[in-house]
Amino acid sequence: MIETQNLITSFGLLKAVDNVSLSVAKGTITGLIGPNGAGKSTLFNTLTGVIRPTSGEIHFDGIRTTKSPPDVLFRQGLAHTFQIPRPFPQMTVLENLMLAPTGQVGESLFAPFFMMKKVKRQEREIQAKAMDILTFTTLDTMANDPAGKLSGGQMKLLELARVLMVDPKVILLDEPAAGVSPALTEILVEKIKDLNARGHTFFIIEHDMDFIMRHCEPVIAMVSGHVVFEGSGEAARSDPQLVNAYLGDMTYE
Amino acid sequence: MIGIVSYLVFFLTMGFVLSIAVLGLNLQWGYTGLFNGGVAAFFGAGAYGVILFGGSNKAGQLIGFGLPYPFAVAGAVLLAGLLAWIVGLITTHLRHDYLAIATFGVAIAVENFARNAEPITGGAKGLRGFERPFETVINDPFWFNLAYLIFVFVVLIIVYNILENIGQSPFGRLLRAIREDEVAAQSLGKSPARVRLQAFIFGSMIMGLSGALYATFYAFISPQDIVPILTFQIWSMLIVGGSGNNKGAVFGTLIVWAGWVGSGWVLTQFAPVEMQLYIGTIQFIMIGLIIVLTLLIRPKGLLPEKLIISRSVARVKPE
Ligand SMILES: Nc1ncnc2c1ncn2[C@@H]1O[C@H](COP(=O)(O)OP(=O)(O)OP(=O)(O)O)[C@@H](O)[C@H]1O
Ligand SMILES: [Mg+2]
What is the Cα–Cα distance from B89 to B66, expressed in whole angstroms? Predict the structure, then answer.
């Protein structure tokens, strides 16, 4: 689904993503681990077009997307959430979700005047879907509140809720469980598995090793911009070098 | 008595004309977060436009199409839109920092063009002798001005309603999302560049409309009417009223305009003779003061932005 060849993303002299060639297979829940500053988020931002790679190639769903901007990639079916949530703080939680669907007829300057009927119908559908997703993410009671008032954990859920408004082929989640209560994390995992069973591919950054081992297959590990491991969760767990060098101290975070 | 009434008519006419420009700025800044530092340029394009398109050709002048008034206004509005489109292209999709500087520069350029391109703009003397619609029918200046006030008021209502509709539509939601977090909006499949350009052009066209109504009222326009201070006046009106709120935009306009006119009157009546020369300067300082005070005391303006919900969305009842 996603393939990279010799991908490099630099910030000045620092190569945050350094010569990464990997692939995320269709239908998997692929996990991405690595210590702080390993370049995981930078890799995600590069894959999704938020940051332009310095060199190398990216293919998504068989199409070369090395230089595609995020909006184009999203419309092609590649959605992602940010590690540090980016809500629209002065819009309601409900409207944060209602923004997400693509191809809204109402999103043109003249629609309110010439296509009100169609716009209203579509808005009703979008709102119904948004309420469903808010209920499942337990944000429904805050639907009318400005998104800026949510707690950090709730903002993480909002990020996820927004991308669930569309039907992405691949969803990249940057630490979806960080700051989210264990009970809610369980619901989240359930939803991810459910979507996965229906053909959605997931690529998930997570520090919680337990989460990774239980739910992700395969697992990719990054250190200092390099991919140092690609394989099953089992193999990662039993790779002594990996455990000692990188994962040992991570589990204590 | 009639003196006071006709002054009131003048006051309201100008107040409404300026309100329209402030509404245009509200679309750009309040809704979309676009910093337009050259409101005077788009206002000026509309003001000159209406006289150039609608005025008759005179000796020593290149243009003067003598178009019927509605076409002249439409031409003026399109001229302002064209200028905005060009500015949008040269500022590479209206990136914030470029936009502020570029629009400010464009306003200076437009003013200088007006001052120097004498065959087109009449130079420093400006353009006069525009025949206003129905002026010959309503032969009395008082009644004409009253009729014009009503006309301007109707235009203001229409513009206000159009903008409210846009604000409460999915497009308005998109504008606010881009204002709040452009990166997040783009990651949700939106194209900020295209949307910003649309909002910028449409807002500038509304400013052009305001300029056209202004020039129609005086049947005269000169470079003096489009100096940079106009931009600051319009901005102060929006900031005082409350950016992001169309009602606030109109309310703020009337208050600041009243303050401007009122302070001018008080100063001419009571200021010592040696200060009379500086009344304009004192007023400029006051505008700056008003902006600073509002930002300090009531940063969101007198009528702050509300959580706007699309008109077609049913409000969700919390259980
Ligand atoms: N915008 C930026 N400009 C400069 N340096 C950056 C930028 N973003 C990240 N970096 C640097 O790139 C490196 C990789 O950062 P990145 O955020 O990708 O790591 P990460 O693996 O996601 O870490 P964490 O687990 O803490 O989220 C770090 O050294 C970081 O300081
Ligand atoms: Mg990270």
Answer: 31
- Chain A residues in contact with chain B using a Cβ-Cβ cutoff of 8 Å: 48, 50, 69-71, 74-75, 80, 82, 86-92, 94-95, 98-100, 102, 104, 106-109, 111-113, 116, 119-120, 123-124, 127, 131, 140-141, 143-144, 146, 162-163, 166
The verdict on a CB contact (< 8 Å) between A86 and B183 is yes
Q: Can you give the residue ranges of every domain in chain B?
A: 2-226
Closest CA in chain B for residue A96: B177
For CA atoms B131, B136, B141, B143, the dihedral sign is: negative
Share the mean pLDDT of chain B. 88
Q: What is the ipTM of this complex?
A: 0.89
Which domains can be identified in chain A, with CATH numbers?
Answer: 2-87+166-250 (3.40.50.300), 91-149 (no CATH)
pLDDT, one tens digit per residue, over A145-179 is 999 999 888 898 899 999 999 989 999 999 988 88
Beta-carbon contacts of A81 under 8 Å, excluding residues fewer than 6 positions away, are A156, A159, A160, A162, A163, A171, A172, A173, A174, A176
Q: What is the DSSP-derived secondary structure letter of residue A230?
A: E
pTM listed for this prediction = 0.90
Q: What integer pLDDT is reported at residue B319 of this predicted model? A: 44
